[in-house]
Design brief:
The protein is α+β, with helices and mostly antiparallel strands. The chain is built from five helices and four strands. It has two domains: 4-48 and 125-170; 52-117, no CATH class. It has a four-stranded antiparallel sheet.
Length: 172
């Protein structure tokens, strides 16, 4: 990990302009910290849609299948009991547990996927030590570039300053 080039912006528009300019200059590894979602930053940051819904769907289907097969096995194969002439495999009786297990597995897998894909819990991040970074939750926008980016150039800081951003280099 290299040093961090940080551009502090006062508005979302300024942050978007800075990110777009960095992308034009060839920057490939940058991140943004904003007090609210800024949709316009998705394109210059190359943010892709998450795979969490697909993973959650697989967990839900797996949980529902598991619950249905387990109930079927227990009721119709492992210990069949003919009570009152009812069929050994009556699918309507298996629906409530199957539904609940589908929801349980889907939500559990989604929770774990979010934790793992976002690399949580993260106990320390160097950006948190920068003076003024706590204002990100209220009114400041930050564009952060790792200087280990293969395309990194020292001129980027002057380009960002021309756009009106407060630029600093944080040595790690």
């Amino acid at each position: 990990m290299g040093d961090l080039l940080i551009a502090e912006a006062d508005s979302a528009e300024m942050a978007v302009r800075a990110a777009r300019r960095l992308r034009e200059l060839g920057c490939t590894h940058m991140n943004a910290y904003t007090p609210y979602p800024v949709v316009e930053l998705e394109e210059p940051l190359r943010i892709h849609r998450t795979v969490v819904p697909r993973i959650a769907w697989l967990g839900a289907v797996g949980g529902g299948t598991f619950a249905y097969l387990l109930q079927w096995w227990c009721n119709a194969r492992d210990s069949p009991e003919n009570v009152g002439g009812r069929p050994l495999h009556s699918w309507p009786a298996l629906v409530p547990i199957t539904f609940e297990t589908t929801v349980l597995f889907g939500s559990g897998v989604a929770f774990l996927a979010v934790l793992l894909l976002s690399r949580l819990p993260r106990l320390h991040d160097d950006i948190l030590t920068v003076d003024g970074f706590e204002r990100t939750v209220t009114d400041k926008f930050w564009i952060v570039v790792d200087t280990m980016d293969p395309a990194y150039r020292k001129e980027w800081s002057s380009e960002l300053a021309l756009l009106g951003a407060d630029v600093r280099l944080v040595v790690r």
